[in-house]
Amino acid sequence: MMNNLILTIITFTPALGALLLLLQNSRNIRVLRTIAVTTTVLSFVFSLHLIAHFDSGSPDFQYVINAPWIPSFGISYHMGVDGISLFLVLLTTVLTPLAMLASWSITERTKEYFIFMLLLETGMIGVFCSLDLFLFYVFWEVMLIPMYFLIGIWGGDRRIYSAMKFVLYTMIGGVLMLVGILSLYFLHGNATGTYTFSYTAILNALATGQLILTPTVERLLFLAFFIAFAIKVPLFPFHTWLPDAHVEAPTAGSVLLAGIMLKMGTYGLVRFSLPYFPHMSHLFAPAISMLAIVGIIYGAFVAMVQPDMKKLVAYSSVSHLGFIVLGIFSFTMQGMEGAVYQMLNHGVSTGALFLLVGIIYERRHTRSIAEFGGLAHRMPLFAGVFLIVSLSSIGLPGLNGFVGEFLILLGTFGVSPAHAALAATGVILSAVYMLWMYQRVIWGEITNAKNALLVDMNLREKLMIVPLLILIVWMGMYSGHFLRPMDAAVSRLLQQTDKTNLEFALNPK
Amino acid sequence: MTIPEIHIPAILPSVVLAIAGIAIMVADPFLSPARRWLTGWAALAGVVLAGLSVLVLREHFGLSYSNLWTVDEFTVFFHVVFLFIIGMTILSSMDFIIREKLPQGEYYALLLFAGAGMLMMSGSNDLMMIFIGLEILSIATYVLAGFRRTDLKSNESAMKYFLLGSFASAFFLYGTALIFGATGSTNLNAIHTALNGPEIQITLAYLSAALILIALCFKVAVAPFHIWTPDVYEGAPSPVTGFMSVGPKAAGFAVLFRIFLTAFPTLQNRWVDGIWVIAALTMILGNVIAVAQPNIKRMLAYSSIAHAGYVAVAFATSSVPGISAALFYLLAYSVMNLGAFTIITILSRSEDKLVKIADYAGLGTKRPGLAALLSLFLLSLAGVPGTVGFAGKFFIFRSAVQSGLVWLTVIGVVTTVVSFYYYLSVIVQMYMHAPKEDFGNLRSARSWNIALFIAAVGTLYLGILPSRILEWTAAAALGVLR
Q1: Is residue B298 part of a domain?
Q2: Which of A120, A270, A460, B382 could make an S-S bridge to B423, C-beta 3.0–4.6 Å?
Q3: What does the alpha-carbon distance between residue B168 and residue B454 come to, in Å, rounded to a whole number?
Q4: Domains contained in chain B, number
Q5: For chain A, which residues make up each domain, given as ranges?
Q6: Which residues of chain B have a CB within 8 Å of the CB of A139?
Q7: The complex's ipTM?
Q8: pLDDT tens across A285-303, in order?
Q9: Rounded distance, CA B407 to CA B281, Å?
Q10: Residue B163 is part of which domain span?
Q11: At a CB cut-off of 8 Å and minimum separation 6, what does A145 contact?
Q12: Is B319 a residue whose pLDDT tops 60?
């Protein structure tokens, strides 16, 4: 019983919190904060149940709930997690309470702010749990609205432009995916006689040959899904919305945007594109890998010259996400597992980076690197934490980033040494831009008088950064704790997309 | 020639509305001006009574009055939709009429007559009957559009609507005459039978279908017959605009479906292509031009054109799922659009002072409740999942893909993204700009609160649990697609 309902509980606890907030007096900020933090922490506590009772040996979906929703159309409320989505759900439930703690500076329209944050969490968890294409689409789109408000109301100077750009970009990909979903639904229904949006039913029909897609159809469908995911990732050249959205979003918005929402794109590739359209995935893999590599290098170079810390981290995300896509399209165990691992790493490290940038932004109301310098004198603890997080982002052995990047490069090397070599330059470049920024912000003498009075991190700020530091070290040292539960699901994915199992030749003609 | 049997139960709801309208007209002069607000509640009572009499209607399915009148699930469905529209319009008008100091009795009587006309359109099985219903509706609406008779814009609105509406009526009549020439009947079933028979002048039939299609396209405001819409919507009193954007549109689609699917299925291969083009054009024009509108009433006028385009997509499938989706969408659009127009009515002030989108700046801080509801309705119009607008669009696109209209669907979804831009720009004003106007002394009357409550609950409930209505619309669609 508990196992059936647990995903529903985790997903909708934040939404319930939002409902509770709606009834509160908007003046009483303390109560609002307490409710927001408590509900997200509750959701986190519930999500521990997932890890405690997860059967690592099984590649199947667990904690499944399947209830009819719109039965006449074969739409059901179907949720479940496997080894891949499990950790993404946990990442969401870990990062959101921390993002809430980072929202103390929001003093205007606090109530609405927390309501949108909570709805956002519900949407994000829903995306990772959905096993019904319709349900997936609903969560995928509905989540845009809270994010739109978060950027548009509590963002910086160009917030309206950025918020609109974010929505329209993501939406255009989303609606094309909807056409793809509908086409797939009818193709499956016409082939098998049962019209259903069930993820697993369609996957089974494709795997068993009950539903065979002609190359043209498969190509169109692949593109319909791929463009939606590529925009979300964002893969070069679909990335232009990202820096705008990041720079303008409030700290917590950036944390969730980079930490979780970008992962929805890569998750979509893993969950839908690869197993549903294996032929086309293989066919397009070289081109996509090239785009990923361009993204890695281009993102790194652009990050290097950014005068704004947030923008720097945003472009570094383009670079890091390129690694993940590269790993996914290597079609090797190491590459794919590394990609999933890197999704978590990026969430933790970049989430932490945005939190840290937020901490000094709250003190100085600027993110310009040139405004800082010599922070180590006034904020030694901050300097130390910032160093660890930067090194984690660079991929220092012993910290989490290394494991993911190493696995991805290993997997890619087996397929194409040239790709691996090119991608590896991204690791070096990341050291350049991260450490150079670190040097300019933290070391040296205090040149700007405004920095002379800064105070170090307070208890709340420590509280929000410590869990991430623990994860950075834990995931770097004991990667097995995280990789083993993924094994079964990833190896099944590999088997589903194995070239030798695919029937028709991968000749573009 | 026998005199047909009078079968009152089959037309009971329209009779109730007509009687209520007449009663209000008669009673109005006898009421002291201070008590004329009672007419509004009397009109509402009439609508509720008519709604109850729909239960009687359900017991009397079949043809009556020499096959002029048909009662099926389709008729019943539209009866409910039309009564809902009239009821909501009355609720959103009550305080508006008092605030604007407009005559009350006539207003409600005209609304009820328009309602009776719409009910007649939904059950008519004969082109002449449909025409009569159409005229009853149209004439009442012409007057309503010009109801603020001292206002120049309102007069312009009524005049434009009247001229172009008459033009459309003429087209309709001409089409009726031609089909009578071709088949010897104006009865929809008889036309269908005759068109399948030998020695039919098929060119004449095509011409007639084209003329009738054009006439109804005027009424439902789809491109390229939409030019009148923005001016008329802008000038009419706000609650009347709300009514016009959903009532005549839904009624127009109801007869469009009835005529083309009952009488003209033989000609389907021709008109389906026409509808395809009309749908594509309407979605593109409506959504793109709406982006440039500074006035919220004009913006929603273009949006209503665009939404008619989505219904036309469903019509182009001419399949049971498609028509079912179209019916669902008409209901969905009525719920959310009436909600939006109720808020516009509340905010507009006398003589439409505050109808620029820029006037809504800062509403989110000044009137958080109204702003949140307007956001809900606008997001629903845009089609955000969880709202009825999304459910409706989803069902339409689903049916379109099912019928192989994939490219039309692609046009539909892409123009939906465009629509996000203009709906969201209202939200941008409300939440992301500093207040310019002082909305302080607005009072939100009880009738408005009831209307908003119904619209908001409907928007969310039908958005999340559409199953039951969907089953109903599917049954209704079977009524016209035999």
Answers
A1: yes
A2: B382
A3: 34
A4: 1
A5: 277-504
A6: 385
A7: 0.88
A8: 999 999 999 999 999 999 9
A9: 13
A10: 8-480
A11: A119, B379, B384
A12: yes
